Amino acid sequence: MKRYILIGSVLLAAVLAAAILLSFFNRSTETDYRLARGRAQLYTENYLAALQTLRDLSNSHRASPQAHSYLGAAYLKLHLYKAAIEEFEEAIKQRPRVSDPWIGLASSYIELGDTQKAVDEAKRATEIEKRSIDAWITLGRAQWLQRNFDEAEKTALKAREIDADNAAASDLLLHIYFDLDQPRKFQAELDRAEKTSKPIQNLAIRFFLRQGQFARAYDTQVRYERDGIERAILETQLALEREPSRTDLVPDLVKNLVKVSRFAKAIEGAKKYKGAAVSDLEVGKAYWMLGRKEDAIQALRRASAARVHKLSAEIALAAITGDIKHWEEAYRSERVETDYFILARLEDVLPKAEPLVRAFIYRYAGIYDGSFYNRAAEEALKVLNDDPHNFDALMTIGTAYQRLGRIDDARRYIELARDLYPKSGEPPSRLANLALVSEPKDPQTILGLMETAVKLEPNHAGYVYNLGWLYDQLGDTTKATELYQRAIKDSPLTFEAMNNLALIYSNAGQADRALPLLEQAMRTDPDNEAVYANAANFYVRQHDWKQAVENYDRTLRIDPGNSIAAVEKGRIYLEQGDTDNAIDSLSRALEIDARSFDAYMLLSSAYEKMGHTKEAIAATEEAQRIRPGAPEVSAAIERLGGIEKDSKK
Asked: Rounded to 10 degrees, what is the CA torsion of 52, 54, 55, 59?
């Protein structure tokens, strides 16, 4: 009996020992699992989830170099660069012969704009792991940002030796050749790439544009978009077969048919659906390409009269008719828009054009790429050699120099235009704009110039709006309201007048007067992202969060680079307590504008709400980097520091 008890005791001890051993291994496996999970979340770009996973590691396991490296990567992707640097440095301290943290450190310094440190750290990574593609690409990026193009090219080619098909190496080389203005190398690299990312597609379009190959820039744009355009055409045609009453689909159908050069079909579609508000600009393009000149002119005149596409329509009319008055009318347009189709048609006009027309063409091309303003000024100066008093040349030079940041030179030519043409409202209006961007600002001088412009051209909605805006800034909302109303009466395109007047009404508790103005703006120009941003701001003031988010989303669909819309979306999510979506939206804003102070301050609040005090402090420190003297930053750091200190007691 005793023998069985003894055997049972031994077995029990063995089971307990096995359980303890198994428990030990389970703990170890759980840590490994969390590390692997954090790494997987990083690879799938779920950076906030990765951060939360890695933060949950015990202090002892979080101290491993691998954990520090992963956590640094999460901070880097969440735009918390100083926090990322601390983690990468700790990983390097523990295991200096691993390349990944050196690469992360270099990438962090790239984001902070410290390119020399980035080069130094990336070089260490290449020394540790000579066949690391990431290390060589990071080094090349840092050298490129230093504008050390020769070394950057050598580094990118070194990366290509390791991996001949590496897309990042190709992207880097294309940026280098673009900045070096080396057409043959750029074209060869572009031809070599089987697939190109959206940013590289945009770079290719800019490259051809800068070379003066306007038609090729347009053709390249259409080629990259063709699959999506053809799919949209087919889907719209099928939808119209099912529901012929859906005439709201026709304008986009006509526009897409023009893009893929199916001009006869575009005209047929515009005629078939009589109730559709098809753009006369698109119809005019189709007639133009089919050689039906008179029909094209009639359609383009209607487009100009409707004002929304006046700039494009008048430039098209100038190209078709050769009448310089259309160029003059084009630059009286209230709305600036880009249309690569129109720009492409000007390439054939340039060689035979007189200097003033060439100046007008390059002035228009400057909307697409600012470098063309130099050429616009050069051509306009040629005009002044023969005709020193030419108003259009003087104003073109003034415009070009203003866009190029040569404010004093711009002012000199515009003042000359004002003295020579005292009855034109344009020079005083432009001088007022120059005074607004100059220091010190003299409100009374600016007011006098704007009032002169309005007195000379009382029905010019833009001048009236500018004067209203200034009174608004000076606190005279009664006068501002009167002028905003005048501007809106004179033109349906004065969106900012509608927005500012809606804001005045909203602040006065008259939301029923504000909303119709914003809805009118959206109906007039549904492709303009500003009208949706203005509507979103109104809904924010009304605390209608759903409508506000929807309109910010519409803004971002039209203009993905609108960082303010992304920030405001983040603010709404934060207000609603949705911290995950807030951080996602604010991170998007920082991808667009890495120096967005508001994004970082809101990000800090989001992390604080999540109980992530360390990350809240890190976000506030990034805000401090952008505005070192901001009192709200110092107050936030002091308050959060106290919270962190209390948590450690």
From this structure: 160
The CB density around residue 167, as the number of other CB atoms within 10 Å, is 15
CB atoms within 10 A of CB 372: 21
Closest to 74 measured CA to CA, from 616, 560, 615: 615
Bigger pLDDT: 15 vs 525: 525
SS3 561: coil
Closest by Cα among 231, 276, 221 to 254 = 276
125/105 Cα distance (integer angstroms): 10
Q: Which of 229, 220, 179 is nearest to 198 (CA)?
A: 220
Contacts 24+ apart (CB under 8 A), 518-524: 520/492, 521/495, 524/308, 524/492, 524/493
Q: Peptide bond preceding 440: is omega within 30 degrees of 0, i.e. cis? A: yes
Tell me which amino acid residue 369 is: D
Query: Residue 281 in contact with residue 312, Cβ under 8 Å?
Result: yes
Mean pLDDT throughout 207-216?
96
Q: Which residue, among 539, 552, 533, has the nearest Cα to 495 in the 3D structure? A: 533
Tokens of 176: 């280098």
- 524 close to 308: Cβ distance less than 8 angstroms: yes
Q: Are 192 and 170 in contact (CB under 8 A)?
A: yes
Please check whether residue 465 is in contact with residue 483, taking contact to mean a CB–CB distance below 8 angstroms: yes
Of the candidates 108, 104, 141, the residue with the CA atom closest to the CA atom of residue 124: 104
d(CA 173, CA 193): 11
Name residues whose C-beta falls within 8 Å of residue 519's C-beta, 6 or more positions apart in sequence: 535
Q: Please give the model's pTM, rounded to 2 decimal places.
A: 0.85
Q: How far apart are CA 219 and CA 243, in angstroms?
A: 33
Q: Determine the Cα–Cα distance for residues 201 and 196; give it in Å rounded to an integer.
A: 6
* C-alpha dist (Å) from residue 129 to 12, 162, 439: 52, 12, 52
Write the pLDDT tens digit of every residue in 463-481: 999 999 999 999 999 999 9
CB within 8 Å of 249: residues ≥ 6 apart: 236, 239, 240
* 375 closest CA partner among 349, 412, 401: 401
**Short-list 618, 615, 552, CA closest to 585:** 552
- Reference 167, options 123, 133, 143; nearest CA is 133
Single-letter amino acid code for the residue at 534: N
| Domains (range + CATH), the chain | 97-194 (1.25.40.10), 561-649 (1.25.40.10)
> Would the CA dihedral through 120, 121, 127, 132 be positive or negative?
negative
Q: What is the pLDDT of residue 646?
A: 67
Q: Which pLDDT score, from 0 to 100, does residue 274 have?
A: 63
Q: Could you tell me the two tokens for 128?
A: 């540790």
Q: What is the pLDDT of residues 332-379, one digit of tens each?
A: 998 899 999 999 999 999 999 999 999 999 999 999 999 999 999 999
Q: Are 180 and 149 in contact (CB under 8 A)?
A: yes
Note the pLDDT tens digit of each residue in 227-285. 999 999 999 999 999 998 888 899 999 999 999 999 999 999 988 876 556 689 999 99
Position of tokens 């077995």? 11
Q: What single DSSP character describes residue 248?
A: G
pLDDT at 586 over 70: yes
| Helix ranges, 146-182 (H) | 149-162, 167-180
CB atoms closer than 10 angstroms to residue 34: 19
Question: Considering only CA atoms, which of 417, 428, 370, 373 is closest in space to residue 393?
Answer: 417
Residue 579: both structure tokens together: 């911290």
